[in-house]
Amino acid sequence: MLIIGEKLNSSIPSVRQFINDKDTAAIQDLALKQAAAGAEYLDLNTAQGDEVPNMEWLVRTVQEVTDVPLCIDSTSAVAIKKGLDTVQGDKSRVLINSISLERNRLEEVLPLVLEYQCSVIGLTLDDNGIPKTAEERIALSERLIETLTKNHYDIDRLYIDPLVLPLAVDYLNATMFFKCLTEIKHLFKVKTVSGLSNISYNSPKRKIVNRHFLTLCMAFDMDAAILDPLDRKIMTSVITNDFLLGKDRFGKKYLKAYRSEVLDD
Ligand code: THG
Prior knowledge:
By secondary structure, this protein is α/β, with parallel strands linked by helices. It contains ten helices and eight strands. The protein has an eight-stranded parallel barrel, surrounded by six helices. Helix 7 links the parallel strand 6 and strand 7. It is globular.
């Protein structure tokens, strides 16, 4: 499964402080540590604060030390554009997080996705909010895929995020999510992704719920996750699940993780 490192996010108080202080060393350390831990993309989010200039600074600061592709995480097309403008090298390596069927978002972000032919995360969300049922989310996925296809976008580059809502709000929210993962892949043959941790909001011992939810999502063939790669327990789950699910030929990655003492039992 593809790992998107979540740590460079201004909603984490310590990281928000690093961004506000323009603490280059602290940000670069988090970028390098996540890359070393196996992050294949680094999510960058500057929503808390002066978003546009902070995004520019963050992209520049991270790219000074690593070539790991970036996942530009913003609801603002202006911030996404600033991120893309700042990225050095091949801009089509950027994963745009995210587009949706909200009218403004679609009108403003779609041209950026098309201009740079970036990969993109599509949220199952429109101007009426997040639909309650799996059926409605699947219908939104279909509309988004139709829109992208009509614009000659290669939907192999699309990751649908069916959006996790807390189990504490409805005990069936995880099962509904699994249904979305299964149906979206079956019907449209596109990839899926999740930020996972919303599932445990307002539940005790959140890390237990997050980790087991991740395992179940992987069993339902989710392709990518936004998670904390510095959390050894969750990384142990990812590596072990890939091994169990036949995605780690000869257990090469599992054994490598064992040898480098990453695995945590
Ligand atoms: N979907 C998409 N994008 C997203 C989300 C999603 N971006 C934001 C968010 N959800 C995913 N990112 C984070 C980033 C940080 C945390 C949670 C989600 C977080 N981190 C704590 C920390 O690092 O201190 C705790 C981590 C832990 O140890 O559990 O809370 O759903 N498309």
